[in-house]
Design a protein that fits this description.
single chain; 329 residues; alpha/beta; two-stranded antiparallel sheet; 14 strands; 30% helix; globular; binds S-adenosylmethionine
């Protein structure tokens, strides 16, 4: 098992398939994009499946989430999902995506065994979308969400980041939209992970503020129908249920003590945390001929070094060198 020195066990593996993205959300990257990783540094589909297999079959990983960058940009995604769902014991397999291309891919991904999808959507207004993401792709995202629902992926979750003076006023409309469509909405506090280093605590819309904004239109009651466990979202029943909303207070309500996640970057580095400053290089070891057992040993040693918390509140906190898009959100 991937146990750290504080007794936490990592069972949830987040795999970034690429650092590239076809949007430029301002909380993530600058309009001109970034210097993408050269193709030779990206794990191939076979290398990804090999490491995921080691995680599942040797190290106790029970859930695999494919992310990025934008994971739908990897042509091999349906094949990678099919090979992941064929593993034994079969892990839960989910995807975090901006939804562009999902209208075409939702059915093949469901056929490959994909269990769930999270689609990012921060606004219901096409102009705001264009301003926020620097691309006019709002209608593609809405179509992608509908296709995921039609393909039977459940629950369809929506991730929203609220920003002051940009889309903060859309908290209640976003929730109304998701309730009407049968999607489960989760608001994520904006984290200091943008490539431009433009995050500031004063500008962040906090979990408390999000709950206040929603409470003006809905009655929220803590949802204790399920144990929260390691789930990052605090969940609330909306107007008595069954509709629900989640709030992920990564900055102001950290949940590091219950964290069960470990990350594999698109270039084959193990990271224990979005905010980790250390990585463990599985790709070089794999390409130098390491056996599965040797790779598993390296992975175990990396997780053993996991820190107790992300440390954003620590005066010595330094934003990690890699932005969110290059880590895998
Ligand atoms: N491209 C995919 C997408 O849009 O969902 C997957 C990668 S994206 C980095 C994963 C999630 O991270 C998205 O929901 C996005 O909104 C969120 N995200 C990106 N930068 C963030 C930040 N600085 N703070 C909070 N969430 C962020």
């Amino acid at each position: 098992m991937l146990r750290d020195s504080f007794g936490r066990v990592a069972t949830d593996l987040r795999v970034s398939l690429t650092d590239k993205c076809n949007l430029r959300c301002s909380y993530c990257m600058p309009p001109e994009g970034l210097d993408w990783l050269p193709n030779a540094q990206l794990l191939t589909a076979d290398e990804i499946v090999r490491l995921v297999t080691i995680g599942v079959e040797l190290l106790g990983i029970r859930e695999v989430r494919y992310t990025g960058g934008e994971p739908l940009l990897r042509r091999e995604l349906p094949d990678v999902v099919a090979r992941t769902t064929a593993l034994s014991p079969r892990p839960q397999v989910s995807l975090t995506t901006n939804g562009i291309g999902l209208a075409r891919l939702a059915a093949p991904l469901a056929a490959a065994g994909l269990d769930r999808v999270n689609v990012s959507l921060d606004t219901l207004d096409r102009d705001t979308f264009k301003r926020l993401a620097h691309r006019d792709r709002f209608t593609d995202v809405i179509a992608g969400l509908a296709a995921a629902h039609d393909a039977g992926l459940r629950p369809v979750k929506v991730n929203s980041v609220l920003m002051r003076d940009v889309n903060q006023h859309e908290a209640a409309p976003l929730l109304r939209f998701c309730l009407e469509q049968g999607y489960e909405l989760r608001f994520i506090e904006q984290m200091p992970l943008d490539a431009q280093h433009g995050w500031s605590r004063d500008n962040m819309v906090t979990a408390d503020e999000i709950l206040d904004l929603l409470s003006a239109s809905f009655t929220l009651t803590p949802d204790d129908t399920e144990e929260r466990g390691s789930a990052p979202a605090e969940r609330f029943l909306v107007d008595g249920g069954p509709g629900r909303v989640g709030v992920i207070g990564s900055v102001t309500r950290p949940f590091c003590g219950a964290c069960d996640r470990v990350r594999l970057t698109a270039d084959g580095q193990i990271r224990n945390c979005l905010f980790a400053t250390e990585e463990s290089d599985l790709k070089s070891a794999m390409r130098a001929g390491a056996t599965d057992d040797e790779l598993a040993e390296r992975w175990l040693a990396a997780v053993a070094r996991k820190r107790p918390g992300h440390g954003i509140d620590d005066p010595s906190f330094l934003q990690p060198a890699r932005p969110m898009s290059a880590i895998g959100g």
